[in-house]
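Working notes for the structural subgroup meeting. M.R. asked for a predicted model of this chain before we commit to crystallization trials. I am recording the input and output together here so anyone reviewing the notebook later can reproduce the run.

Input as submitted:
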Amino acid sequence: MIVGVPSEVKSDEYRVGLLPVGAELLSRRGHQVIVQSGAGTGSGFSDDDYRTAGASILPGAPEVWAQADMIMKVKEPQSQEWPHMRDGQVVFTYFHFAADRDLTLACLEHRIVAVAYETLEQPGPRGKPTLPLLTPMSEIAGSMATQEGAKFLERPQKGRGILLGGVPGVEPGRVLVLGGGVVGTCAAKIAAGMGADVIIMDVDLDRMRYLEDVMSDNVTTIYSDPHAIRKYLSWADLVIGAVLLPGAKAPHLILRDDLKRMKEGSVIVDVSIDQGGCVETSRVTTHGSPTYIIDGVVHYCVGNMPGAVARTSTQALNNATIPWALRLADEGPWPIARRDPGFALAINMDGGRLLNKPVAEAHDLEVVTA
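Returned structure, recorded in token form:
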């Protein structure tokens, strides 16, 4: 199989879909790896690193897309990449289709095999499924959410002028985390480590019992319902949206009217923005222009947060994706899917057929049973 790695073209995206070591491992198994010149530069990997690993370097994206049987990316194909996609081509990347109808329709039109990192499931503790290819970026995004939120609470960034940890004689900042999954746990852990008072909300009682056991004393768990959310919005200096429904659009837990309850200069970091956002007033921003203000509340809604720490993110992502890429190159998607139902969930579409029910529901499209 020919595996292609184009440069990422999303604004301020510095990650790359495959490390040089991945190119070496694929080459050892008889596959050909082609990489767009400069694709790894933002993560600190040169063209020579890829050549040494056995990859061929091509000058531009059109050549990579035209020759590759499988494309490995990080972010969903952007509009300028859509014309390069072709019938039967496997594209292995994050898609987040439920948040983008135009992308969904384009991928269906071009009849690609869309294998989505974010919907691949594997068995986890206590019989609950995990999302192994989403987890590493969720860990980074959660940690960054508190870091970025602390920054934008500073007065020059239009925030309240709050130091999350406080100082002796001055109370610490207050952080409300909506969602106790991987993102929320990492966000709460960083906030607690900085010395903030933290409330983390979820609806999974077992998960909250676990969080009570592992979190420090300055973290409190609260069951999430509309009344509790509204109550603690007025308490919080920083709100972190960390809600995930795998493959589906995120629900709006904070409505426009709810912003009136928040303090002037408080900050919302909506990590759920890749899936449409869990705040009604959220819209995608970029690292170059990361925030906007509505009703006095600073909104940070960068859609590719981990791209800012590209080297760490690329390494963490590839630790999870390379084993699956090797299997995909060796066998193709459907032989794996027939043996592994969790992997089958990653195939969101094939040959113009939409296979993912939450995506179909988000866009009122017909779903086909594989």
